[in-house]
């Protein structure tokens, strides 16, 4: 049971480790590091269960092997090829064998991967990836003790165990074995009064130490201030993203202002904007000067902005450092929403000494802001920082917003391993808040659309459409997704459905005057015009969008609009203009580190056959005809045969005939193989 608990604690590390070995392929050297008692061997066993289909050779090393030249090499297979080498305690390897193993694995033509446990960081420089196992937190220690002993242990004893063992599972096991039975139920430990536990839970919740707050809350009898307990339990559930449980405790918060302020946050998580406004109005009437009322008013600015479509007046004077930081967070979020990413970046920076938990809210929107500004490397670091903080503070509510941005950047920068890890974490239960499910679905759709995974993009888009049909989320600037879904529908040949989606978006968004929305919505609108034969109208729509977006500090949007425009121009025979536009898009993508998109621009230019890049296309090594080049490019983007036929005014059978010839010329058998071959030029 205890090993199952540790697998649960380390589940994300296990998944990422398995992905690194699987996706990394030959040449991967993955180290699982941690001191004796960190359960690194248990983690290794769990990782290996995910890799059961791969040929493996496992060896165990001991301290005396370190001084035996060739000891490790003698235990390895000969020849050292086509296998996964698994080593327990690699720190005990002799130097000569270690050099041989790592040199072989890290060679450019390697067919060997290595996964090993190590007792510390001394060998990290030899690895391609390192998974460092941390000690258990106080809350995790409580869960681990319960899994080992089969009983709940008083928090006072958990604190002692954690202090004596440092949170390392092996040391905890040793200590528990030596403890008398009576100690496990609290014997010999000075216990706090229930009221002290409730006060401590309240303090910890205020400091956003939510997992530890729950430990103290569980020590409280049900009849001790039930209103306060219910509010705290609801608040903990809310931050963990447990919607039903949060509603159970926060739906009727009672008269206390700080309880009612938590209910305002609940409405925000549900995206119930009228509910937020009603609760804030009532709080201002009943307790106008309370700190909790000010907190609610600050959160209520989001509802005011969404319902009015305008930036609200930020005429609130914070009474505490926490509310000052909270106001900066909301100000930054709204600035990003209303096309002012420069102000957003300024307001969303959190400073040393500020609340790390509100910092997660800031990081969620700061990473998005940096994405829009094209500062993708920094945005990726902010995503990881936010994810680490949210996990440490029990704030799973905010993870999808971070993963939405992280998955996009990873996919477009060619880090397929990280993108897959992020996307796996975007899988939510039905018990999720809208503040979770919306960015999760948006992230899945956008990544699938960018990777030409048309079926997945269509499924995610349909899920979004169903979501917004039951809850009004379509407030200009807050959750823009319709342009990507409409473009996905176009690629699937569903032109009328795409027209319906983008027409609805235009009706809602145009009055806002937001340049980013107008320009992004113009992409599917212009594409539909081209599809329906209105070439002049399509060109005008695209040109207006390009002119508008190039006047903004939003290169992420600029590059995408230019890329889509260049593709349409090329397909309609305007190759010179297409090459100019695609060259501009590629330069912006290059500045953002979007290597995948740079290559896709280059592939489009090769097919276009203009200038230096096009010279490759005119004498392409595969001998494709111009029409075959067009068909191959469309199929590589994810278009179906029928969609290609509509795009090029051919019959489906003609497309099938050409595709067969293309496969033969390129020496591939599948669409994925075609995509990879074209990407290589």
TrEMBL record:
Residue intervals of the HTH luxR-type domain: 617-681
One Pfam family named in its UniProt record: GerE
GO biological process terms on file: regulation of DNA-templated transcription
SMART domains registered for this protein in UniProt: HTH_LUXR
SUPFAM superfamilies: C-terminal effector domain of the bipartite response regulators (SSF46894), TPR-like (SSF48452)
One Gene Ontology MF term: DNA binding
Keyword field: DNA-binding, Transcription, Transcription regulation
PANTHER family named among the record's database cross-references: DNA-BINDING TRANSCRIPTIONAL ACTIVATOR DEVR_DOSR
Protein name as annotated: LuxR family transcriptional regulator
Species of the source: Corynebacterium humireducens
